[in-house]
Structure formats: structure tokens, C-alpha cells
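Can't paste images in this forum, so I'm doing it all in text. The chain is below; anyone willing to post the predicted C-alpha cells underneath?
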Amino acid sequence: MQLCGSLARGALKLSIETIPIMTQTNGRKGAITQDELDDTLEQVTASAVADIEDEDEHEDQDEDEAEDRHARRKPKAKPKSYMTKLNPEQQARQLAFKNYRITHPALRAVVADMLPLLMIGAETNVIAVTGATGVGKSTLTKVMLQGLVDEFDPLMEEDRSAVHLVYVEARRDGNSRNLFGRLYRKLIAQLHEPGMEKKVPFSIVDGRMVMHSRTGSTVDDLRDILETCLRQRKTRVVVIDEAAQLNRFGKPEDVMDTIKSLANTTGTKFVLVGSFDLFDILETSGQIARRTALLNMERYDAENAEDLKAFKKMVKSLQENWPCREKPNFVAIAKELCVVSLGCVGLLKAFMLDAANLQMRNAGEAWDPKFMLKAQKAMGLRSIIEDEIKRGETRVRDAVYGNSAWDEAKFDELVARMTSSERKKAYAI
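Text version of the structure:
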């Protein structure tokens, strides 16, 4: 293109230089006028520029065609990334693995201890369930709720208007005002109270009914409505998840007094599920401790043969339900997995979920052992979790349900006395 342009420009120069010669051969003698020279120069220039543009355009077309031919001959390079997009079938397998729940001895032990405490004849009306982060409290809550639904199902058949079980989560949304008021509203909504938006709160003052503003229901108004709902709906159990957030609702003693009062006035049992911080609202007074039971979901100890056997069984169960076609042999390293997950089933599940996600997005769903390095919790974060767990376990150790004032030797002595022949004779008398 540059060579052709140069030739055209040379032709333009030549044309301009020969204008006087050409004009002299047009039948006129003598020099041409300035106007004629300008007109001729303009015509010659326009013609030469048009030639240059035509040559450049043809040259560009030739270059484009050559590039197209070269591109057709050269195969397109494939993306070098090993990551692939998940198809619907892979997504379904991934979701199924995420939703897969494991029932294990520690979980069953908590549920078994809880059910007798929820009976009407039990004096305990507030049950706190604590445990380490990642120990499996969320799964415990789901299993517990399902068990309670099955327990109350016959009662539902007798009275369709009853709501025997209510579940809410004590979350904070950044607004620190009226926390109890919003919790009451959640509970009332779960009780399916009809026409709640039309109800007018009232109080009795000097034997007279005083109506309150409908738009400005106070916390006390909501509390009164909730009490009425719990009684009329014959609610047996209220489960509050993430209950450690109640610490931020006010002073611990005020929070626990409020819950205890609700339980006393309605006959409803309250189950509080949360982290070890939940213990702050349980140790406020002897009166509260008297009607409260604390259940702790224990971790698994890699050095305990029975614990390790149970943990290995859980690893095997997760491995058998692995969402990828190639299944890693996690059972072979079950003890190491117990150590790295701090004996917590939730942390084990999180580790295997992350490893499965990495494998599933790998080309051909091929397993790479290096996935385990990324899936396990980083050492710095793991140390934070471990320190928090140890501090929490130390705090609640002496308050856990079943932790008797009798040591093992004293207990054996008492059992022996109860079953001795002397005891039998005294009983007969």
C-alpha cells in the first residue's frame, strides 16, 4: 500500500509540473491566466487524490483477505483454564450433597436428653442448647424440629387450630432499637394470628378497658398479644435459633427474666439454641438456674477409640454420597480429618463441600489431592476457632445437664445402697 501511494503521489507531482506544457498544446499561444491555472490544478489534484484513495482501498481489501485466509488455516486456541461451567445435572448433585444430613451419636444424645425435659410434667421451662461453632447445631435444630413435629402430630389431629411448635431466629439487622418488639412480631406471625394488622391493643386501668393506638403498638402491647396467642394456640414449644444474639437485646438478667416470665404465664417451653455466649444469660440468678437446663453438643475426640469409630462412620457416609464420579478415599485419613476439623461435624462437612466443589469444577471432575489444601480451614482461622471452643467448653463444663454433684465413686456407693438387701428390707417395712 505504501509503494502504490508513493507512485500515485509521484504522478500528482508530474501532472502539476507539466500543466504549462499541456496548456500550450491546446490551440492557444502564450501563457495561461492565473484563473485557468488554478482550475486546471484543482482538477488534476482531485483526480490524483481519487486514484490514491482507490489504490489504498484495494490494498486494505487485499490485506483483510490475506488475514482471513491465514485465520482459517490456523486453528482457534482453546481456553487454558481448567475451570468449567457446571451443567444442571452437576448443580443438582452438588445441591444434594450440600443438603445431605448426618445423624450421629452426639446429635442423638442431645435430642434424647431434650425430649423428657419438654414434657408437660417437667419443671424445666427453658432449655439452652450450646455447642462449638461448626459442631452441627444447625443440623441438630432441623432434626429436633422434625422430631417435635412427629411428636405433636397426633395432637394436631385433635385440634387443627393449635400451633404446638414455633420456630424463629433471633437475628440482628443493624437496628438496635425495639429488638424484643421485633422478636414478638416474628413469633406472632409464626402463630398465624389472623387479622394481626387490625388488632387494637388495650389494657385494663382501674377496672376499665383502655384502647391503645393501633399504629404505635408498644413492646408491652406486643407482649400481651403474644401471651394471648401462645395460650389460645396451645403452643407447647418455642425454638429460638441463634439465641446468643439475645445478649444484645438488653441486660442478660432482663432478657432471661422476660423469657422465664413468658414461659411461666403461658406454660410454653422455650428452647434456646446458640453458641457458648448463650451461657451469659443463663448464669444471672439462682431462680433462673432452677428452671433452666443446659445441653451441650459434644465434639469428637480423635484420641478416643469410640469417638474415632463414630467419626470414621460419618466420613464413610459422606464419601458414599460424594457428588463427583471419582470418589477420594477419605476414610483412610479419617483420624487426620477429625483433628483438622476439631472434632466438629459441621467443620468436616464444610471441608468436604469445598473439596467437592473444587473437584466438580475441574475438567472431567478429576480429583486432585491438592484440593484438600484449599478446602481445609487456614491455620490462623482454625486457631481462632479452636481457642474460642476451648474457652466456651471450660465455661459450661460444670453446668451441663447430667453433670452430677456426685463423683463416680459416690454414685456407685449410692447405687449399691439402693440395691442392697438392707435397703430392700427397709423398703418392705
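The chain has 17 helices and seven strands. Strands lie at 126-131, 165-169, 202-205, 208-211, 237-241, 269-273, 292-297.
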